[in-house]
Amino acid sequence: MAQLVSKRDLKGFSWMSEQARSVEAARRAAGARALVGVEPRWGRNFYDVSNEWRRVFAEVLGTFLLVLAAAGGPTVAAYSHGTVSQVAYVAAPGLMVMAIILFMGLVSGAHLNPVVSIAFALRNEFPWRRIPAYVAAQIVGSVLACLLLWALVGKLGMLGATEPGRGIGDLQAMAMEAALTLGLVSTILGTASGAQNVGTLSALAVGGYIALAGLWSSPISGASMNPVRSFGPDLVMGNFGHFWVYLVGPLLGTLLAVGAAYILRGPGGDVAATRAAQGTLDLQPSGGQGSPAPEGHKQ
Fold this sequence. Notes:
11 helices, Glycerol uptake facilitator protein, mainly alpha
């Protein structure tokens, strides 16, 4: 009899333990909602194309702010005769990206960079058919930022155009851009992955990497790592003499980063990374009621 009671008690304790875990999970979910806010329904329905304009606008706005900081630093430094130091203006883009990811990453994924969109697509975490609109939005944001700088202070400092440093050839600069982009895209893919589970700390990692890369490598290539960041100033200045460096280098680095991600974490399609790439935050269990699967995971 004592043995039977003992087993019954154990079952009771097991049931209570499961209930406690459920309560704790609900408490943590509520805390997460309080921390980051509950995303509107359109944010969870990534495959609802009627709301694509929101994500496209987010990419325009985010890229505009990024290029305003990245190109604005050298431009304002030239306008103010060096009041803005090189250390300040090479670190500014990283801080700006950190802020952008935190304030609008849930809307579009805050790609801000064509190679990021391509990397997520190659990892089966972002649909290829969405890339043209994202890239177009990023180009528009970059050009608008440079036009604003031109209107405010003129074409000083070459509007922050990225060019190989003094004594550096195009091939050297391209190799540097490839290496830097390898690190940047690896950081983005890694922190977006569910294997890392860093959440909003990804903003610190990505922004910190951009600032660090600029601090040590900007004298070599300008540390662009972003074709549209380089495209905007080149278009407004009408000088594409070195643009290929900042197109080929980041694309090559992206391919290397995707290959490295395959070695580290397999072929991709991670649910958490897909949600990060598509700009969704679903606090309900995957596949639960009211939580549609990301586009890359629909059956």
